Amino acid sequence: MMNCLNSVEGIILKAVGGLCITETPEGIFECKVRGIFRQKNISPCAGDKVILTEISGNTALVSEILPRKNSLIRPPLANLDNIVFVISTCEPAPNLTLLDKFLAIAEFKKIKSIIAVTKLDIQKNAALADIYKNSGAELLEIDYDMPESYMDLYNMASGKITAFTGNTGVGKSTLLNHIDNSLDLKTGEISKKLGRGRHTTRNVELHKLLNGGYIADTPGFSTFDTQRYDTILKDELADCFPEFREYEGKCRFQDCSHTKEKGCAILSAVESGKIPRSRHNSYLEMYEEAKHIKEWEIREK
Ligand SMILES: Nc1nc2c(ncn2[C@@H]2O[C@H](COP(=O)(O)OP(=O)(O)OP(=O)(O)O)[C@@H](O)[C@H]2O)c(=O)[nH]1
Ligand SMILES: [Mg+2]
Ligand SMILES: [Zn+2]
């Protein structure tokens, strides 16, 4: 009986303009958010587990946000178990620096990451599988004529929260529609004029799969957005590149930054082809950015 309910726990499926669509065992509620969160500059986001009160009909109030396992700033999501980075071989061309930044952040936050390569029917790219074989991320080559190439994603998402992210137009919504065709997500043509997609997906939203998993389709990001992404301190960065780990402690200098030092085991592994150069280049770029971050800038939130 709805009107006897004082409070109920739920999960936010979508948070837009101060309104949260929240799923609970009692049904879906459209919720306002307690003013105190705004004052504290906390915004509930998709994936948040929350307590609803002031329940009336199909509306309620988000009165408590339960502790987050993890969260991302962009896309705004909480409590992720998996992140699938969708990357296309062409239209748009792969941006490995951006991919590596996301992989490092997922590693830092201990979120399992998967790389899904699309548009192999238009252009092959065998190099990607080689570059990422020791990156800690599983790489799947998607072939829409072979459901087994993507159904692992469906099984992996069962009972979990999984975000699909990647540049605009890479085929995130297309992939999700194949994984569960009840989703019926909007997909868009690549704009030839701009040479990129037009952000067919506008908001982050969790969708429930038939197997009980939640997946988030996210609007594609552009390179510009990365500056507003989560950041990793420079001393913690090498540890976010799993293929560097076997060389840890083998550099001549204990405080080696693995950027230019003599006797650096990681630099020599790059030279001998054991660590892919593009992965190390991304490390260098992130290291340079991380130099300008002060610990208090990211830790006092
Ligand atoms: N040939 C081919 N086309 C694909 C493939 N995957 C996606 N597409 C096409 O690429 C275009 C963009 O796909 P979407 O699924 O809308 O891309 P998205 O990543 O969701 O884009 P945003 O929502 O803008 O971030 C559509 O025209 C798809 O049909 C693929 O593997 N092969
Ligand atoms: Mg989309
Ligand atoms: Zn080194």
Describe this structure in words.
It is a single chain. With about 300 residues, the protein is α/β, with parallel strands linked by helices. The chain has three domains: about 1-65, Beta Barrel (OB fold (Dihydrolipoamide Acetyltransferase, E2P)); about 70-225, 3-Layer(aba) Sandwich (Rossmann fold); about 235-300, Ribonucleotide Reductase Protein R1, domain 1 (Orthogonal Bundle). The protein contains nine helices and 13 strands. It has helices spanning about 35-40, 95-110, 125-130, 150-155, 170-180, 235, 265-270, 275-290, 295-300; strands at about 10-15, 20-25, 25-35, 50-55, 60-65, 70, 75-80, 80-90, 110-120, 140, 160-165, 205-210, 215. The strands form three sheets. A six-stranded mixed sheet has the order 10-9-8-11-13-12, with helices on both faces. Strands 1-2-3-5-4 form a five-stranded mixed beta barrel. A hairpin with a 2-residue loop joins strand 1 and strand 2 (about 20-25). The longest helix is centred in the last third of the chain and has 14 residues, at about 275-290. Bound molecules: guanosine-5'-triphosphate, magnesium ion and zinc ion. The site of zinc ion has 7 residues, from helix 7.
